[in-house]
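Exam revision sheet. Question 4 asks you to relate a sequence to its structure. Input first:
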Amino acid sequence: MSKDFILPDIGEGIVECEVVEWLVKEGDEIKEDQPICDVMTDKALVQIPAVSDGIVSKIYYQKGEIAKVHEPLFALSSSTEGNVENSPTQAVTDQILDRSPVKDTPLSTGGMQLQIEDFLLPDIGEGIVECEVVEWLVAEGDDVKEDQAICDVMTDKALVQIPAKSDGKIEKLYYEKGEIAKVHEPLFALSVVTQQNTTAKAKRQADVSKVEKVETASVQSTENQQSVESSARKKAVASPAVRRLAREMNIDITQVKGSGEKGRVFKDDLRNHNSQTVNIESQASKPVSQASVNTTAQNDSSNKVDHVEPIKGVKAAMANAMQASVSTIPHFTYTDEIDLTELYEIRKQLKPQYEEQGIKLTMMSFFIKALSLALKEFPIMNSTPNAECTELTYLSEHNIGMAVDSKVGLLVPNVKSCQNKSIKHIAQEVAEITNQARAGRLMPEQMKGGTITISNIGAIGGISATPIINKPEVAIVALGKLQELPRFNAEGSVEARRIMTVSWSGDHRIIDGGTIARFNNLWCSYLQNPSSMLMNLV
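Answer key, structure tokens:
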């Protein structure tokens, strides 16, 4: 006796999915947890496993059709029942329900076959729906191994490397370098070797012979089959989201030429089809003289077209973050000078010792540790308000961010728990994080949870700045370049000192000028007199 397998919930809010690939055929004997088919939702590719051992007695949907959640997907009979002969009437019914022609079913003698599979771009970060293709590490025609790096993609937050999920050969790269790829849509096509099965062929041949024995039913079956085949030939291969968009745009999706593998239709295909239709109608309605005038005008201005490029990736994320900050936070700026002569000499003495341990000792390590020590005395500088600014949370962790000018744009990773780390430990992390940021290899976790930020604009040039607060933090400091300037000493004599200008921006809803001035004085005292840090160092 057959029992229907009901398609379970496969994601929040998912009510239907597309059958992408059947991994078994009718008549196949399967085991519990064996993958049965791949289905595509609006969000991901999901593999459906068997819930028990048995024989696949019926497949209710063909490849490319839309299956409904909580409705039968396939029928499974117990393997102990054996193969019971169907009646002629049942054979006719089965033949009608079989939506694809018999001759189109892949047949084999149990050998190997080459199958081309689309690699769907997986989830690469919370809330990430698209990314920019930064670099292809392979080319079409290359043989690749499982877990081999295929390409680098840039999200709003980090550079991510995409690996191959299996051995195979690159058949198609769907995006050029610099183009925007969509999550859960094909990124590249990979040809892989798979094992065929002959069970389906035997069952189908048996069904056909049964149908031929019932002449009247056979004629009716053939007519229905031809009707279904005709419909199947016109059926477009597209995901539920694409079909929904086609309905909203009032487009007959069967008339759209798909750009994907096997004619798969994507959202861009719908938009291109729609724009082409509009252009054709528009051109048809134009007088010939008007078209001639337009052509002349275009030729005259061909060398005067402005260059336009989209703001995307990290730049788009920065633009949104900066706009949100300046539009909701009342900024005020406070500027001061720091005499770093003593700190410069101490670093110069310690640098060779750190290098012997493989550690690059930078001034940033001292800035971060001194800032953490000052935060202990001024916890309000390490706080964050809620969206309505009716509550203030004092943060126990000192996660101090560093603005890094990377090849992909401005990134702000942070050193976690600086209150518990020594200068040596901080120096190690600063070097690692900086190298990762400049290469665009930061993980999203490294840029989350910051509590206060340092921007070292002086490393590039410039004395002062008006930095924008990294919301929801309440303060940020910009470091100017280190200059050797003349200054009066205690005896009134002029001497060369190493001076740096620091520029603070504060959230005036939370902190006032007096607070940030006193906080800055304490921070500067640690840096100007490094020995004062010894009492508080971890």
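Marking note for examiners. The two ends are 72 Å apart (CA to CA).
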